[in-house]
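Here's what a typical entry looks like (High frequency lysogenization protein HflD homolog):
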Amino acid sequence: MTASTPIHRAPDTPAARQALALAGVFQAASQVDALARTGQTDQRAWETLIRATLDTNPESFEAIYGGHPNNLRQGLEVLEGVVGRQQVNPVVLRYGFSLLMLMNQLRSNDAMMDDLGTRLTRIQGQAEHFGATHENVISSLGEAYQETLSTLKTRIVVQGDPSLLQSRMMPERVRAILLAGIRFALLWHQQGGRRWKLVFQRGALKKALDQLG
């Protein structure tokens, strides 16, 4: 993020911050589904996720997702469906809730957390040299996921077009986006997000989503 990026302040409530972080999780889930089925991503959604993963020491909460909630619009729309009990793509939901489960397993594994932190610091150097979305950076992010999170008990099995999933750079892109989902899942937890709140504090989340527009 550059100094000239306008910051659109998020409502300073726990529910609003949890909603934005959770939107990042569901945006990652949506992008994984799109990649696996069509090989395509939404460029803005994709770049927001990758940049958030690389920015491990953001200057503000809003800076994580690029300063404007519209950068998480895809994820916010999924979350609105979840909160409003509307029909949501079940595959996207499965990926999203699996990311939350995986995050909880990661949180209890200090060695893996440290390993991921070291890897991301190294990848940040790559990103400064090549650019955040260069395929060398994406490959490194994918490798970081594969060698850490994919070894945990919860495994995310991605469904889609087998020929697409085996195409060049596709496994790395999918894993990089799953890692982004974990980044936002950790953020959600840091902001007080818990699985039970999705059931019992649905009203607060809905109000926060309405405020975000």
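The longest helix spans residues 14-38.

More examples are in the samples folder.
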